[in-house]
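Incident review: delayed structure delivery

Summary: a single-chain prediction request sat in the queue longer than the usual turnaround. Root cause was a stuck worker, restarted by the on-call engineer. No data loss occurred. The affected request and its eventual output are reproduced below so the record is complete for anyone auditing the incident later.

Affected input:
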Amino acid sequence: MANIPVGLQLYTLRDELNHDFIGTLRKVADIGYKVVEFAGYGDIPAKEMKKVLDDLGLTASSSHVGLPLGNRDLLQSTLANHIEYNKEIGSEYIVVPWAPLEGISQPEELVPFFQELRFAAEECKKQGIGFAYHNHAFEFNKVGDKTIQERIFESLDADLLKAELDLYWVKKAGLDPKSYLCKFKGRAPIIHVKDMTADERGFFCEVGRGIINYPAIFEIAAEMGVRYFIVEQDLCERPPLESIRISYDYLKSLGVA
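Output delivered after worker restart:
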């Protein structure tokens, strides 16, 4: 298998980070992760964060950034701050983690969101940083004759908008993660690696403990242009640090980590 770095979406450890941000990053590095994806910076200045990452042997792939949609001035200033921070720490992508699109029923309702998305994407491109959208399951709802997901990625060219495919949510929407990844060849540099329980809940679980066939996905990932595997577990039924260790150990057993 290709040597694709394995990282952690830090949202998984949000409670631990709130208690001790730097100490928790140290535990992530001790487990073996080499990459982190941020979902907040713990009020740590960028220069200090970069030093912490360097000292721990970690790099940043990306950051999840909630965009203040509907207020262009606030959007511009918020984005400028995040771009500056991410460039300072060496992060490659800013990712929109969620958008309020669940209740959309008509294609024209999406137009204001697409305008804001384009603005943000163009600002990132000017500054030399990538821009991506992270899916949940509701993006696979149809609006007219196409899904929201289809409409999002048709609204902007691939040089402006990349996909951070969350394969758990692809599965939750009733689709095959491997086949769906193939549709985004060259456009999904980051995939979220999380697994799903086999019971009727289809709940979050550690990678390798669920029903998603990750070995088959890992075999084609490099060919599809994937550059980062990012482990994430939205909710854990054991201590989150234990969960991320189980996932990492599984990936290591496959020769991925």
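Verification: The chain has a mean pLDDT of 97.
Action items: add queue-age alerting; document worker restart procedure.
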